[in-house]
Amino acid sequence: MPLPPYWLRDNCPCGECRDPRNGQKLFQITDLPEDLTIDERTEADGHLAVLWSDGHRSRYPLDWLAQEPSGDGRSEAGKRLWQAADFAAGIPEADWDAYLGDPVEQAAVLGAVLRSGFAVLRGVPPVEGQVLAVARTFGYVRETNYGELFDVRVEADPNNLAFTSAAIAPHSDNPYRDPVPTLQLLHCLDNSAVGGDSGLVDGFRAAAALREEAPEDFAVLTRTLVPFVFRDRGTELRADRPLIGLDALGRIREVRFNNRSIGTLRLPAAELDAFYAAYRRFAAITLRPELQLEFRLGPGDCLIFDNVRLLHARTAFEQNGSRHLQGCYADLDSLASAFAVLNRRIAALDTIAEYFEGEGAAEYLGEAVTMAGHMLQAGALAEAAGAPPHLVAAALLHDVGHFGGTGLDLMEGRDNRHSDAGADWLAQWFGPEVTGPVRLHVAAKRYLCTVEAGYRARLSEASEFTLQVQGGPMTDEQAAAFAALPGAADAVAVRRWDEEAKDADAATPGFGHFRPLLAALMG
Fold it and tell me: What's this model's pTM, rounded to 2 decimal places?
């Protein structure tokens, strides 16, 4: 199917049209000519090349052009709608220490919140304020009239039913806010009371059931603006929103449901009758036992849930019992961002691991060890020397620029500039403290051959050959200029481990040993 020219040009990925760091466009749509046309188009090497009528050239990956439309994942189309029985084998949960230490575990937790609407972290230290630290692992704390942090416990003068021992039916928090906090966290510090169990209902599933069973009632609740109101001595808030919010395609995107906070709805009598009939039917659906997932939070458990999708509830508890949760609000878009970045980093680590296990394990480049063995040895030597993490990473990754078959070019006498290529590739995920020594490690060899007596004589035969291809020893002036560079000392350290890491009999750890260190350095 022919692609509209303005769409195609608006999505040109070149550096003139988009900032390579963040993908933002560098032109306005009105900057494009009124009579924009395609002069030439060719397909080769998996890309579509376009010459435009104004002389601009664009190049698009064919697999990108073939992608299906996708949304932001916020509507029901991007969710796993559930009922209680779906968690018979257990709810989404993870250990706090594992969550902090393993990007894969963290991504699993955040993914569960995005798909199923919630997850529980176990073993979070039950100390006051810790819930804020949990929120900051994926985003920012959203401060409200309840403060940055709020306590859910029996208060002497409560301004909210949550601060009593009464049972609370399934509901959304803060529906009177615009925008409503999209995430809520509840961290249990104490729960020795009789009762006080937690409950969740998938509001999207309940709304979908209403749509299936009573489509006219569903339509009423999607179009009726309901006044949600909260007032106390220092606050007055109001937001008029439907109980069930839809996106432009008619898909469920938001549920606001809180009987305690609905103000007075003023409509003609017939519309009020229709609304209350639909409202009561929807409320009854949310109370169906098969939709209510109940569990108990113990000290150290932290529940993270989607406040514009899930309805949360609580059973009553003995007022003289001890039940203390601390909570805060956060934003779902920050969590989704953290999830996407984690997945990018995991994919990057997987790609690097594949190089070590595939091409890197097969090519020797004139040495007694494979490329992978050489790089792993260099990383292990840096680690054994007590080097900081960024230098261990640089030693481990210093020759990634050889991957993709270009290492053979160097051994055939053509400088593949692998130090620059490797540093540029790694810069997608690592900062200059890692990429700097990688970029300078070839120059460091040339430098050491000039300033250190006997260094060149210790080079392996392959390293002596590549030295000549890469420009030979530096002049005295070049060596002085190199020594003045901010990262010269780190590059020299990596170079020494590079030359030492060629022992065919050395026992070295696998790539998995270094993976947590690399994950921690990615930024």
Answer: 0.85
